[in-house]
From TrEMBL, chains A, B:
One Pfam family here: Beta-AFase-like_GH127_cat
Domain Non-reducing end beta-L-arabinofuranosidase-like GH127 middle per the UniProt entry, residue ranges: 424-519
Signal peptide (UniProt feature, chain positions): none
GO annotation terms (biological process): carbohydrate metabolic process
Residue ranges annotated for the Non-reducing end beta-L-arabinofuranosidase-like GH127 C-terminal domain, each copy included: 522-633
MF terms (GO), sorted A to Z: hydrolase activity
InterPro entries according to UniProt: 6-hairpin_glycosidase_sf, 6hp_glycosidase-like_sf, Beta-AFase-like, Beta-AFase-like_GH127_C, Beta-AFase-like_GH127_cat, Beta-AFase-like_GH127_middle
Ranges where the Non-reducing end beta-L-arabinofuranosidase-like GH127 catalytic domain occurs: 11-413
Protein name, UniProt field: Glycoside hydrolase family 127 protein
Keywords linked to the UniProt accession: Hydrolase
Length: 634, 634
């Protein structure tokens, strides 16, 4: 079923300024400061099992809940991000750190291959007793993703082999065979990691294990729900079921029957990512249809304009259609990072620009907002409206988003291209160079642009001798109206096929395609049932959603109104926030000077003329506490 | 300092239809169904101490937290509400139930007078070890208020005597004397209850104890903060300080230094109520000034248009200026009930119609919304915007609001009048009859109206022989523009003095004053810094704030817009929801038919003409799940 394959991060070189700067920052600031934080917070030390020693000091939240049970995943994600970074530039110190982590994990691993540092240290007798809440399989998945990434980046397989032993142990433990437990993870993640392991090693048993986990999920056909079996075995009281519903972990019904996105957003989207992987691997129409229904549900009713997902803090997840509050938006960084993963898989299943549009939206906006300009501060939840009290942190009680955004940025090169037998698809722009196998040969592609600030894009092609004719498919984003294109200086009609301009020919060395995607500043409106956005507009230019921050605006951002007939202009400011395009426009702002003492009165407040300056959403909150709004009254 | 006194609930007869119906409902439905719930949920049984028996089954929330430590207060509040009701109509069954509760409390009481059923049953060795969190003094206060109310309503003092013994024990335990603990309640309440006990008995020691609790609160002058002393004695870990701040209990600084309302809203307003009581008792300018500063703060920056207080679920309380979200509004019923208490005290300190305006606002809107039309369903939190998922419950995990709203409604008669030596002030209208001591004599007052539906009010006066000249002060609500008045049919000029029309003369039997308060339907706007209400209007008529409920409106309420030039009309509908006045107007509503699949798009949605029907906020959610909005886009 899969016609297209992604092109691995290690095969694409980022040359354009936007992502080059972000990659430099990740390698120079994010990866080393994260390592320091992992060290400082005892997370690296927790890999060393000392059953006789007193427990490490661990953070707890106000409900006396610790995140130590997730620490293995933090290590795995750091290894993964660092490994992607090594493709961008080698770094001996980072490699030595990964080797040291490998040593620790090798020592920690139990003789039977089991490798969860919390359980090995704290309660070895309780392995696999609470898949629902305690993240053993999730941790295993993240360590595995780290191992695969390190192997891909360096060819070193020591960590990979440790993780393969662990996966073999897991494959023995879980399954439908005699003596096996019919369990599956409460927090999905290992499924997609196993598909990566299968791709890296070619060993089908890992694909089979991923398939088992996805197929068994929510199964109550002739068996009791696995999390209920577990719960009874543990003797839990009802209060110990924190979220109280299997929707939280998307195990309320078999995955093929699911058509509404529910529960914890990150869990959900990791699951859907694995479902799309397996749909491709097995040509599984049932999984593909479920993915399509879930995709439609989430993008048509449950997505922030910034590509954020999961509005509610309560379940870190989904609530109901059109429920997208701005000031209390959860929109976890991890969830939109996960959306990039899922969208990339959907795009491989089915080359439709809609998937790439959402991939780009989630990447450039909600995800990228998660990482500060200095590369060492983060957002966990991504508000779309703030009175100034929401600001970035250098570390978090639950640091999952930290390494999720760095692994995304460090691997961004992997999302630019797709290939099929006789087709090369360009999904993203921004300056990226690669050599791809196509049409019995190879083609060197060099895409040059100052995207996302500018929509003028040039692609130089250099097929090697003997490469047959192939289709170059250039994504025309849905926001790009009146796009124009030229091949070797000659205008070609921009007629798109499901979001892509497709040009089939025998390409020659020296061929150049020029694409122009106009990027006017535009107003966006939300569906009339998005209560929070009624009467408001958001600003967009190209792939970027904008916001107004207090520091750039003379009037309080909460009082600003942008009348419907105001012209918007945009300009690139090289010296502002590292070089960004701002949007400006004339506006009105309510005045409070004559308001008086009452909080409410019958007369409206008078308005004064003002103007607004909007900056890209992803760059907000890099200048200290700063009130901000994405949605502006019209 | 206090010039005015309230007129006790037991001295005023409610004759007008609005409150008569609510009082009937409370006596016929609320009081008996609450008793049944107290029985069903083991709350009455918990008064019987059986140290050897297994603990009662008690409800816990998802953080494994029980409310049983508050149960004494629920019993106290039920006794209090029922006692007020007995003034409206005697009821032998209710009296027998209170006697039975009295028997149980008498048996439960420890030889030294201590009487907290949780501690007596569960952990008698831990008395008074956690005033910060465990509500011992709060429970004592509510039981005491119940005892005072029962004594006032019936003259029976058995319960009162039990509580006086308990108060004597508390007075021995706490104070600045040698061997005493310098403690005070984490949840204020007992302070105002002790003032009531002082008024009922004349025993100054109870006033002294209230004064001590208020004065000692937040004291760190030469002593350690009491809750820190306690905490160290308990050996708590830092995580056990659930809210993590003394602002939560208004003990972050001495009360006289407080000028911002902070923390848990109900605790705060109960404290301010006691402060106003003590300001009057002691002629204490420091306390009065603090009350005035806090009043100004809360009413000018932190009050919902419905008279709700405390926007946040997290601390059940205050956040910051102008932070008044609608869909997530907490606005606990208890907090606005408490506001009625506080406002009544402020009004006695200082006859300013502003206090009565807020009293009326909190009473008729946020408070009254807490009790269903059938008298047996409740709101704890009072949203100002709902997608239909917020509905009333018959009982609550934490049933505090249940009995708070019933005790308010049952005692509403006590808020109508104030008296001074030569003045009678009428604060509220709605049909109430009383005989008051004034100017060396007495006057019978009969106020007749169909308020709040109609602003035509008639007051018949019948002074007894020998009553001197006095001032009749009629409140002219701030919302009433162009009020007119007549005395014995002759127009008098409506010139107000701080919100009251004051008429001084020698009144004669047969004198009648007619007052006409026009009640047009009006739009209200919020201060420009109330982010949640920007660009929106609320509807008000007289003392009532309105809302639009889905069942009465053809278009989805979230899509409705009320253009600024739309005329609003109002009409009384005798057969609708028991007889209410509705507001109607022409409106516009966004249409989604052509919206397409995307959640966001550049073109605005077209609008269609529609009309709206608004109902009083207090009556919403009496017809099943029903989307609702108070604030409507303009």
């Amino acid at each position: 079923m899969r016609t297209y394959s992604s092109v691995d991060f290690s095969k694409v070189k980022i040359t354009g300024p936007f992502w080059h700067e972000r990659l430099d920052t990740v390698m120079e600031s994010t990866i080393p400061t994260q390592y320091d934080q992992l060290e400082k917070h005892n997370i690296l030390d927790s890999l060393t099992i000392r059953p006789e020693a007193p427990p490490l000091t661990i953070p707890k939240n106000r409900h006396n809940f610790t995140t130590q049970i997730f620490w293995d995943s933090d290590v795995g994600k750091w290894v993964e991000a660092a490994s992607y970074g090594l493709s961008h530039r080698r770094d001996e110190k980072v490699e030595a750190q990964i080797e040291d982590i490998t040593d620790k994990l090798k020592k920690a691993q139990a003789p039977d291959g089991y490798l969860n540092c919390w359980y090995l240290q704290r309660e070895p007798e309780n392995r696999w007793t609470n898949l629902r809440d305690n993240h053993e399989l999730y941790n295993a998945g993240h360590l595995l993703e780290g191992a695969v990434a390190y192997y891909r980046a360096t060819g070193r397989d020591r960590l990979l082999k440790i993780m393969m032993r662990y996966m073999d142990h897991i494959a023995e433990t879980f399954g439908t065979g005699e003596g096996q437990r019919r369990g599956y993870p409460g927090h999905e993640e290992i499924e997609l990691a196993l598909v990566k392991l299968y791709h890296a090693t070619g060993e089908k048993k890992y694909l089979d294990l991923a398939t088992y986990f996805v197929d068994e999920r929510g199964n109550t056909d002739g068996v009791e729900h696995y999390f209920e079996i577990e719960r009874e075995e543990r003797g839990d009281t009802p209060e110990m079921f924190f979220q109280g519903t299997h929707e939280y972990s998307q195990s309320h019904k078999p995955v093929r029957e699911q058509d509404k996105v529910v529960g914890h957003a990150v869990r959900a989207i990791y699951l859907y990512t694995a479902m799309a992987d397996l749909a491709a691997e097995h040509d599984d129409d049932g999984l593909k249809s479920a993915c399509e229904a879930l995709w439609k549900d989430v993008t048509e009713t449950r997505m922030y304009v910034t590509g954020g997902f999961g509005p509610s803090e309560r379940n870190e997840g989904f609530t109901k259609d059109y429920d997208l509050p701005n000031e209390t938006a959860y929109a976890e960084t991890c969830a939109s990072v996960a959306m990039v993963f899922w969208a990339a898989r959907m795009l491989n299943l089915d080359l439709d620009g809609h998937y790439a549009d959402i991939l780009e939206l989630a990447l450039y906006n909600n995800s990228l907002a998660g990482l500060s300009k200095d590369g060492a501060h983060y957002f966990y939840d991504n508000k779309l409206d703030s009175d100034g009290s929401h600001s970035r942190w250098a570390w978090h009680f639950c640091p999952c988003c930290t390494m999720n955004v760095s692994r995304l940025v460090a691997s961004v090169a992997g999302y630019f291209y797709g290939v099929a037998e006789t087709e090369v698809a360009v999904h993203l722009y921004g300056g990226a160079e690669t050599t791809l196998p196509v049409a019995g040969g190879k083609v060197h592609l060099k895409e040059t642009s100052n995207y996302p600030w500018d929509g003028d894009i040039r692609i130089d092609l250099a097929p090697e001798e003997g490469t047959g004719p192939f289709t170059l498919s250039l994504r025309i984003p849905s926001w790009a109206k009146d796009a124009t294109a030229k091949v070797n200086g000659e205008a070609v009609e921009v007629k798109t096929e499901r979001g892509y301009l497709k040009m089939n020919r025998t390409w020659s060395k020296g061929d150049a395609v020029e694409l122009s995607l106009p990027m006017p500043a535009e107003r966006l409106r939300a569906h009339p049932d998005v209560r929070a956005d009624a009467g408001k507009v958001a600003l967009r230019r190209g792939p970027l959603v904008y916001c107004i921050e207090q520091k750039d605006n003379e009037q309080p951002v909460n009082r600003v109104r942008l009348p419907g007939d105001t012209a918007l202009s945009s300009s690139f400011r090289p010296d502002f926030l590292g070089g960004i395009t701002v949007i400006e426009g004339k506006a009105k702002a309510e005045q409070a000077a004559d308001w008086g003492k009452a909080l409410y009165r019958t007369e409206p407040a008078p308005e004064a003329d003002t103007s607004i300056t909007a900056v890209p959403y992803y760059i907000w909150a890099n200048r200290g506490p700063n009130p901000m709004a994405v949605w502006i009254r019209e």
